[in-house]
Each structure stands twice: as C-alpha cells, then as structure tokens.
Amino acid sequence: MNASLKQVLLSRKVAKKPVMTHGYGAGHKSITRSFLTHNQDPDGDVGGWVEIDKKREDGKLSYQPVAHPESTLKLLRGQVANEDHLPLASALVSDYIKAIKAVLPSFNEVTKWLRKMVNKHDDVHKGPLEWTLPDESKVLNQYWQEAITDSLTAWSGLQTHREQLRTMLEDEGEALVPESFGMPINFGAVETYLRSQGNPDEDLAFVEYVKESEMSRLATLTEELDEELKPFTTVGDRVDWDKLRTHLNVMNNEGPLTPEEIGSDEALKPFDAYINPPEQEYISIQRKSGLRNIESERTGIAPNMIHSLDALHMRLVIQGLANALKLKDFWSVHDSFGCHPNHIEELTTNVRGKFVQLHSLDDPSGGLFFDLLRATFKDELYEAGPAKKAPKPGNLRGAHVDSDYFVN
Is residue 141 a contact partner of residue 130, using CB atoms and an 8 Å limit? Predict the structure, then answer.
C-alpha cells in the first residue's frame, strides 16, 4: 500500500464513519459499499462495474463495483486494478471491525444486550421498549412497517377524486359530492361526517388534497375569465351560476352552463375546461400499516439510545450555560457546541461536567443502560435464564474521562 493511500485510510475522517455506523448497527456489506460510492452512502453511485471471473448459480456473469471518482477510496483508481477495489474495501472494513473489538471489547456485548431487551420487553408487554431520561423525557423505540398503498393503479384525475369521496361517504356521497364538476363539493359537511364516523387522519388528509385541487381549478378559471365575469367566481369555492345566468340573460336552464351556451360566446370558453376538466396527474394513497417492525426496533435500539443521550446532553449544556451565565448566543449541531470566545472556558467545563452527570459515571448502579436492564429482566437479572450472564457495571468513573483533552 503506498504512503498516500495509507495516510487516507488511517485518517480520523475516514475511520469515523465505519466506527460510528457499525456502532449504529450497520453491517460489513453496507459499510464496504459506502467506501466506494460518490456520497459515502451504501445506496450512492459507484464508479462503474467490472466483470469478475466468477459465475453465478444461474450461469450468468458476475460483476462488482468500482470506486467512484468522488468516493473515499478514489485513490484506488488508476493505482489498483478495478477488480481489486471491492476486495480491498472489504478487507479494510474487516480490519476496522477487528480494531473496534480490540479497543472496545464490550462493544458487541452492549449492542447484544440492548437487542435482547427489545425482545424481552416485546415478549412481556407486547410493545416497544421505552426509557425515561434523567430530565423525565420519555423515549419510545418504535418502528412501523412500510405504509400500505391502497391503489397501485393510476388515478384518472378529478373524476376519481369525487368517486373516492363518494365511496368514503357511503349513503351521504350523492348529496355532498355532485358528479358534475361545475357543482361544488360540500367540504365542511364531508369533514364533519368523516370525523363522526371515526375515519382515519389519512382520509381527512385526502379530503384536504381534493379541496386544494378544487380551489386551484377555481383560481385558474378566474384568472382566464374576462374582468366582467371574474366576480361570479369569487364566492369562495364555487361559481355562482344563478347570478352568472342573470348577468348573461340565459335563464332557460339552471346550474352550470351547457355546451351550447358556452359555445355561443368566446368569452365563456374557460367555463368548458372547468366543467369538463382534462385528466390530471396520477395519485395514489398510502396508509399507515399499523404494524410494528420488530427487526428495525432491534437494529435501531443502539443508535436510538445514543441519540437520546446526545440530545439530553445538549439540553443540559444549554440549560447550564443559560442558568449560570444567562447566555442567549449559542449554537449546537448534534455533539458540537459553540459560543462567543469569551465564554469558551465555561462551555468546556459545562460540556465535561454534564457528560459525567448524564452518564451517571459516579453512580455505582451504572446509569441508564443498567437501569433498563434491571427494569426489563427484573428478578431474572444475574439469577436465572439468559439474564444470568448479563453484564454488570464496571469501574469507570467521572475522573477517568473528565480530562483536559475531553473537549477539543
């Protein structure tokens, strides 16, 4: 490995992502691919594909990705054969994971027991794991399965909007949602009826979507009409056909203008598109599945707990500075903090002190992780079943981490 490539691979900038994402539950395969993509994301673009001398089970040729020109491993391009990009990235990730285990031997143990707690809580309570932070805020480790698409077929536009509303309203549909596009939908009565029947929020959201569509149609019509005809479309959500007919002196019919009446005057042509609208863009409706995704709850427990503690640490730091110094000028991004230079000393002290306080490093009970272990396994902890081998609090204390190098 040449010196320039080695320098890149061993830099903190490169090492941070696999260490962090592996801690969040990312596997070897996704981390490997992220080294080869343009945006360091597993789903990003790679720099192409190279055929390898390995046939698949179906007899077809096999291909593997090449490092993108903007990827972390862009230095491989031109220096290492294309077919070696993926194996090198894979070997690199394997070494990073080995290093994590060597430096943090308890890493996998903590992750394993967090996932066991998710399983145990679901077995006992049939619900997602939750915990309460020291400031009394509650965190719910809940994931839902993907939303369900009610209709995968293309919608035909406004006609289908009205048909869908009539279906939702059942017997009330005819009176509240006319078939003629020239006649308005009684949206107030529609919403009242659906709420009285306990329809889900998604149905009410669809009503709002149709309402916006109808208002847009009316606005387009008003814009296209001559000035003398505009007042008859400014009554909120409809055309005032009675007054318009009186103005035009066409009293033979009622309601929307007929094709013959529209054809008799060039100025009335915009009403034709309003009453007989063309097909609009397609739409589909997605509804919440209502089903939990247990696997995502298991893989997400570690990052969710970390993020909840990071967020609490940020709140504690901001509150500490605000209470002690009445500071109002402060910025923060995730685990980074900033203030005016004359308050840096106070900021550094606050960040260190709140970290020790947050993680209960001077509390022999061990803090949030062990509190959650005890709450989940109760009498079984250290006594019976799998929980008999659960980890116990160690000897790490505040003095071990509260150093001058804790913040930089």
Answer: yes
- The domain spans of the chain are 3-104, 106-146+293-408, 149-287
Give the residues across from 63 on adjacent strands. Answer: 51
Angle between helices 368-377 and 294-325 (to 10 degrees): 140
- Name residues of the chain where pLDDT drops below 50: 152-156
Cα dihedral 310→315→317→323 (10° resolution): -170
Contacts of 162 (CB under 8 A, 6+ apart): 177, 178, 179, 181, 185, 210
3-state secondary structure of 30: helix
Whether 35 and 71 have beta carbons less than 8 Å apart is answered as yes
Angle between helices 107-125 and 294-325 (to 10 degrees): 110
- Supply the DSSP symbol for 154: P
The backbone region for 14, taken as left when phi is positive above 0, alpha when psi lies in -120 to 50, beta otherwise, is alpha
d(CA 338, CA 407): 12
pLDDT for 169: 87
Q: What 8-state DSSP symbol labels residue 173?
A: H
The type of residue at 39 is: N
At 130 the three-state DSSP class reads strand
The token pair that represents 161 in the structure block = 């909007």
CA dist., res. 318 & res. 324, Å (int): 10
Class of domain 106-146+293-408: alpha beta
Q: What is the model's pTM?
A: 0.58
HSE (side-chain half, CA atoms, 13 Å) at 407 = 18
pLDDT tens per residue, range 310-338: 899 999 999 988 888 888 888 888 778 88
Query: Which amino acid would we find at residue 28?
Result: H
- In angstroms, the CA 337 to CA 347 distance is 8
